[in-house]
Amino acid sequence: MNVQFYSLGAAEEVTGSKHVFEIDGQSYLIDCGAFQGSRAEADRKNRDFGIATDRIENVILTHGHLDHCGLLPLLVKQGYKGNIYATPATRDIASLIMMDSANIQARDAKYLQSQAQKKGEKFNWTPLYTENDAIQAVGQTIGVSYNRPMYVGDGVSMEFYDAGHILGSAIASIKIKKGGEELNILATGDLGRKGKPIIRNPAIPETPADYIILESTYGDRRHDSTDDAIKKLAAIATRTVEKKGKILIPSFAIERTQELVYYFHLLVDDGVIPEVPIFVDSPMATNATTIFQVHPECYSEEIKQAFIKHHKNPFGFNSLHFTTSVDESKALNDHKGPLIIISADGMCEAGRIQHHLIHNIQDPNTTIMTVGYMAENTLGRRIRNREGEVKIHGEWFKLKAQVEEINAFSAHADYFEMLEWLKAVDTSRLKGIFLVHGEKKSQAFLKKYLEENGFPNVEIVKYGKTYELN
């Protein structure tokens, strides 16, 4: 049996997860994500797919974030006809994400073409894919529930375990049995954390792993405690009310927005903060919240009790408003504070959050609160780093707003939590750990930390390099 592994994305960087296992010449793709960051660089990387579609036997999708599913429509556009395996919740979320991406690309093409015409310049950029391609990708996606083993190829079976990252996220346990030999691989996708309020804790797969493909987004950082984060959230909200200012929260539409809504709900219910208008200004987040409501199989026990037994809606309350139209979104810029706006994109690279930043970033009474990972070269990272000026839609704006960062809401395990999970997994047969989906500094720290704590064979995956799995 000849098994090889290599990465075509998220190798010494965070976005664009795309990993390949070749088993006796048959290729299996784990995730098919879009690169994010500098527009020109991301576009170049996304168009250079790296593998011919006719070589791919099947695709396994760990979860529905853009950097894990965002190039699936391009894959089918280029001729891929096979299956895409995902949990039912991931199928629904990926559908939402891919359709939104196609729509944004179409709008971008129209806008950039009009700008080029005004300048008398040639314009030949085309979207990576269309909504029809996204629909085709969803049509090829097979829903597989947690803990339901399924054969995905000759002598190759796959089983999903809850990754505890976002709704429907999965750790893929891949078992290869051929010619009397057996090899077990765990691909974590993005590994979540214990104690998140909506979804369950990361599961511990039962099968001993020979190799683990481990994400490393927060490989050199510890998260704040949830209790401290909620206190900080309450303090920022209270200060904003006193100043009659605004809080802008760039937030991923999936999981993070629903989690923030849940915490604000608790703070208002407990009388910790006064009722203040909260607007979720993201059509995707509104649609995602609906998806959350139809997938109770992913809920933590806490949410099950609130949502099912007591018939309470943990994703909404009186002071919460969901905007739907562009006009409603624009009207928020004329809305006097105090006011909280939760809006996508989570890294500030696209979406309505950019327009809210344009109108409020130079106001000292505004607080911009970052609650998730900001990749290198993104607008969100520049704001988080408190750069004096930032460029939005081609114009420079002085950063006069206050910037606050809360790490506890991250959906990624930190280095301590990753070690805790690894120690709970059966590693009696473990031959090696491959680190993916992390920046170089983060991965170097995590490699050393794991080696110091009993895991000696840790490899930082290089882009395109082939690794033999024995």
How would you describe this protein?
By secondary structure, the protein is of the alpha/beta class. It has 2 domains: 3-221 and 411-469, Ribonuclease Z/Hydroxyacylglutathione hydrolase-like (Metallo-beta-lactamase, Chain A); 226-405, Rossmann fold (3-Layer(aba) Sandwich). The protein has helices at 39-47, 66-69, 72-77, 88-119, 131-139, 226-243, 256-269, 283-293, 301-309, 326-331, 353-360, 379-384, 415-424, 440-452; strands spanning 3-7, 19-23, 26-30, 56-60, 84-86, 141-143, 150-153, 156-162, 170-178, 181-187, 211-215, 246-250, 278-280, 320-322, 339-343, 366-370, 389-392, 395-398, 402-405, 432-436, 458-460, 467-469. The strands form 4 sheets. It has a 7-stranded mixed beta sheet with strand order 6-5-4-3-2-1-22. Strands 7-8-9-10-11-20-21 form a 7-stranded mixed beta sheet, covered by helices on one side. It has a 6-stranded parallel beta sheet with strand order 14-13-15-12-16-19, sandwiched between helices. Helix 4 runs antiparallel to helix 5 and helix 4 packs antiparallel against helix 8 (283-293). The chain starts with a strand and ends with a strand. The model has no long low-confidence stretch (mean pLDDT 90).
Any idea what the CATH architecture of the largest domain is? 4-Layer Sandwich
The parts where pLDDT drops under 50 for at least 5 residues are: none
The major pleated sheet works out as: 7 strands, mixed
Fill in the CATH topology of the largest domain.
Metallo-beta-lactamase, Chain A
Kindly state the mean pLDDT as a whole number? Answer: 90
Provide the CATH top-level class of the largest domain: Alpha Beta
Strand percentage lies at: 15-25%
Instruction: Please identify which CATH superfamily of the largest domain we are dealing with.
Output: Ribonuclease Z/Hydroxyacylglutathione hydrolase-like
Domains (count) = 2
For the biggest β-sheet, the strand order reads 6-5-4-3-2-1-22
Can you count the helices? 14
Shape: globular
Helix content: 25-40%
Q: How far is it from the N-terminal to the C-terminal residue, by CA?
A: 9 Å
Number of strands: 22
- C-alpha Rg, in Å? 22 Å
What structural class do the secondary elements suggest? alpha/beta
